[in-house]
Amino acid sequence: MSDIGFALRKINTEEFATIEKEIAESNEVEIQLNLNTGFGIDLENKMLGCFLQIQFELEETPIIILKLNCEFEIEDSAWEKFTNKKTKKIKFPKEVLQHFSVITVGTARGILHSKTENTSYNKYYLPTINVTEMVTTDEEFSLDK
Fold first, then answer.
1. Which domain CATH number covers 114?
2. pTM to 2 decimals?
3. Beta-carbon neighbour count of residue 70 at 10 Å?
4. What is the number of structural domains in the chain?
5. Between 58 and 68, where is the model more confident?
6. Is 45 left (phi over 0), alpha (psi -120 to 50) or beta?
């Protein structure tokens, strides 16, 4: 991973919502956490987007929803390294995707805190997440526009 040049170029908060529901003051209440990740590319700018959707649920009702993505610019030499000109596809190794996912999850943690600060929702935080369990395969994209 250290030989891949990249830069985080943009953070997009696509959706943030808190849904009114009676929230018990006790910490005994069981909150479910659902996470979904995905990836996309911007061929023109040699960017890889890491998408994350987080939903906190209380009794199967969403109480916090956060959707975001981080856009990573990939250095030309790394982009070429991942490109297969014969198949007209680009393939990102899972280790690269896992690294970008770690950055995106950390970013989500900060957004969540910032958006819920001084509210009753601030007690719900994003725990540490093992992204190697979430991102288990390489990701391949077509280079055809």
1. 3.10.420
2. 0.91
3. 22
4. 1
5. 68
6. alpha
